[in-house]
Structure formats: C-alpha cells, structure tokens
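new request in #modeling-help
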Amino acid sequence: MGTFEYFDHTADMGMRIEAENLAELFTQSALGMFNLIVPMDQFKPEDALDVLLEASNVEELLWRWLRELHYLFSTQKIVFKKFEYKDLTEKMVWATCWGEYFDPEKHSSEREVKAVTHHGFQVLKNGGGWNAEVIFDI
Amino acid sequence: MSQAMESIPLQKIDECRWEIPKSYNSGMRVPGLIFADEKLLAKIRGDQSLKQVANVAHLPGIVRYSLAMPDIHWGYGFPIGGVAATDPDEGGVISPGGVGYDINCGVRLVRTNLTEAEVRPRLRDLIRQLFNRIPCGVGQSGVIRVNREEGRKLLVQGSQWAVQKGFGVPEDLEHTEGRGVLEGADPDAVSNRAYERGHDQLGTLGSGNHFLEVQVVDRIFDDPIATVLGLRENQITVMIHSGSRGFGYQICDDFLETTRRALEKYHIQVPDIQLACTPVNSPEGQRYLGAMRAAANYAWNNRQCLLHLARQVFEKFFGRSWQELGMHLIYDVAHNIAKFERYKVNGKEKMLCIHRKGATRAFPPGHPELPKDYQKIGQPVIVPGDMGRNSYCLIGTAQAMDETFGTSCHGAGRAMSRGAAIREARGRSIEKELEAKGIIVIARGQKGIAEEQPAAYKDVNEVVDVMHRAGVARKVVRMRPIGVIKG
C-alpha cells in the first residue's frame, strides 16, 4: 500500500507520497489532496466519472492528474475516493474515479485548495516504487 | 528532497533597510532591497524568501531593485511581500507568479457610527448573522449569479458593474483603488475553466486567510488624517479580505503554463520555474494582462458584493439603513496585482509594469489617482493583521514613490507553517482562547482556526513599525478585532 504525508511550507501545504507502483502513486496523490479539502470518511464511492489524460512524462502526467481532479472538484464539487485504472502508463492515465458530490448542508470541510503548484513538484522512481512531492496553494 | 537552506549575504543600510548585493549571484540584474528590522529579519531568515528576492532580481528588464516588504515570506517564485518593476522598453517581463494565484486578493475597510458599547452585548448574534448570510468556506455558492454575457460585462467594467446592479453606490467606487477597475481586461483571453470555476463564486469569501472582521478602533496615531477618514476611537469598523476566487486561481494556473513555454520561445533564463514570465510586449504577455485584469475586476466586484451583503446584515440586525449606520467604504486596496504606473528612472519618466505580490499601493498626497477627499492626506493603506491582535490603516507617502514604486506592506506575514500551527494548537481551543480575549470567531473549515491562529503570524505591529520608521507609509489608525468569520 502506498502512503501520503504532509510537510510544512510557510503559507501552504506540501505532500509526500510513497508508492509501490504507479496505480498507488496516482491513488494516494489524489486521496492526499482531497483529504486536505474535506474529512474523507464522510464520503462514499457512489458516483463515477472517467478521466483520460496524456503527458510526455510521468511527472507532467501526475501533475495533470491532480489538476484535473481539483478542477472537477472546483466545478462539479465531487470528492473522489476510489480509482479504477483502465489503463495506466508513465504517459497516459485512464481511470474511473468514484466519489460523492459535496453538499455543504451535509458535509463538513477543512480548507480550500487554490491550486496544485509546480513549486518543488517532483516524481522519482525509487527502485521498484515511486516517490513524489507536491505543494498545494492554500 | 526538500532544498537545503542557504545563507544569503545581507548588507545593512540602516535600521530598516538591508541589501542583497548584485554580486551574490552573477545572474542578478539589480540588487535586492529588504525592509525589516533585526527582529523581523531573524524570522525572515527562517524560510527561503530572501533567496526568492535574489531570484526575482534575475527578471529581464527589472528596474532598480527587487524589493521586499517587512512581511515577506516564502511564496512560489516571488516571495509574498515582493515588489518588482519592469521596463517594457528594455525587454521587461510580466510574470503571473509576480501577481499570484489569488489575483487582486485585497482588503476593504468600512466605517460605522456604532461604538463597541452598542455592539458588545449582541456581538455573538451579529457574528452568527454575518456567518449565516455571507457564503464562506469550501464548496459554498454565492447568492449573486450571472450568465456568461453579464459575466463578460463585469470583467470589463470592474465594480462599477456591481454598483449599477444596486450592490453599492457611486461613492464606493471613488474609495476603491483605481475606481474598482483595471482598464484593458480581455474576456476572450479567459479560459472556459476559469469561467466555470468563477460562475457561482461572486459574493463569496473563500477560505485560508480570507475573512470578514468586526473591529474596534483602538488607537489613533494621526488625528487630522483619521478625522478625514471619519475614524475615531471606540468606533466599530468592518474589514473584508477576499479576492478573485477560483476564477483568478484558474487564470494564474493557465498562464503559468503559457509563460513556462514562453521562457524557451523568448530565450529567458530564470533560476526558478515558478518565475516563468514573458515580455510585456509579446502576444503571451498581452493575453495574460487581459486575463489578469479581468480577474482583478472580478475581485473588485466580489468585494463590492461582500460589502453589500454585510450592509444588509447590519441593516436587518440594527433596524436602520446602512446610511444611518454610517457604513461608508473608507478604501479598498489590491494586494496581488500588476499595474502600469509612471516613475522616474535615471531622471527620465518611464511607464513601468509594477508587480505587487502581497504588497499594497501607497500613493502620496496630491497623486492624481486619489479621490478628491483624500487628495490632501494621501492613499489609505489597509493592512490586516491576525485575528487576535491588530489591523492598521496607514497612509501613503512621497517617500514610497521615490523608493518602493509607491508600495507598502500588506499584512503581518506568516511566521509559522500551517502544519506547525495545527501541531501548536493540539489540545487547545484557539476559539476559547480568543473568546477569553473578547473575540468571537466562527469558521466553517474545521482546521481553519488552528491554521490561522494569531501565533502563526508575525506581529503586524512590528511590520507596520518598520514601514512607518522607513517613512514608506505612516501609521494613522489601529484596530483590534472583536468578531471574525472565516471560511
């Protein structure tokens, strides 16, 4: 199983991911981002959207992935918590993302994430696994 | 994988000024100039903001100095509290990172003719009413919806649009920086994603450091100027801090990508990819400026709508019209913006592109941009502090025009990361601690109060002291919060 943890950045939030494979890298990154915005235990994987993205390398692809999920949350207010990958390489992700629509009357929240930044963004292959770092603008 | 801290050489100029010499790094085109005293400097050295001041000095066309205000802290590319002027005639660039994600995040100060004694007995109820009426926090939609056609109008017209719709009066425009509009907005330069993110967020506060505060004037430093502003001791004021919401965040995000590509196209070398920039006089630069101005205009509409909602709550609560309550806008300033302004460079007047990233315009008395009633005193510079201490109204000076491209500080500046603030708050109730000091705080986000606790910020009193002593902006009035709503 992969993990995510947060690290300090003066005004914002950093996140470090350790994963054994690409699917875990993408899943943990997404869960870590949504966990900043809302307490995740209130949400169920009951609605689904497909996300298909391409990039020239894995770093760009992970960044686009987080940016896309953040955009879907910002506009459709859906919190994703389960991911099924139909295809996943270092240059392409096609996933069915399962989650629940955020309802301010029903769900509590933590904080707004303004953006997924490029500041210090990195993805490293570590033996058979993956490490990544990302900073979110809060 | 985090970067190691690097010691930056600083030359002391006087008690309030420090220089990073050009010799520190061969790519620096100008020196760095930091406004701080020894005490603040010790805190500033705790993050990488000084390195960022030096990095900004690499920007093509930068004029005179890469400037830093006493509230600087670590940002993306630019430090927050950073100021840079570039000369378009000399290949000067525009950098979306020099404005930031929250384009025209800013603050407005509103006076009332209420006193603390009148408000104190019903304070909790008042703050609750404000919290219920003003959308704040994650996923909250605004009550003011506009279609795409109206949206394009407000992006071009600035807060004049809100006033025409009845969400304010013409005098509000007079007391807003640039009359609440940046000319030259281009709605066609704005992405669909930005429109989608912005369509339901007009009149919403947001979260993070955004807030609406009910305050009390607790100290007057300059009585004649305070009198012109209509401020006296024990008077209740309202302060609103918000920006362009998802609309602006998306525009910044879009153009960080555009300008990253522009670096290669225009052969620009910067030491940090988040300083991505493009010549002002390039198609990419003009497009960013058009979109950035649209976001700035969105933000002024947002704060105007928030003021409208606050006035409505006060009217209902006190059973008097806002005019009877004396709820006049003192001034509204932008904290994150790029503007074209004229300054003398080497004896010659030049039109420069001024990036203010977490910094406030601070024009002197007599400046043609100021409204008639402030011509003799100068521009009010609104500086919010943290929710436990103070906020300030300063006034702009001629010194600022000579030294900082008419710019002052914008707040207290963070001293503690969000993670550290949460650890610090463990086992405590910041809410109760503030209540014991007579401050009622209501926040929607569960972690918001801990992350935004007073100890997470530098002392705003120390920050404005440096500006005052340096002669950049002078202290006029100090407020203390008694009620706060946060996202």
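bot summary: The two ends of chain B are 32 Å apart (CA to CA).
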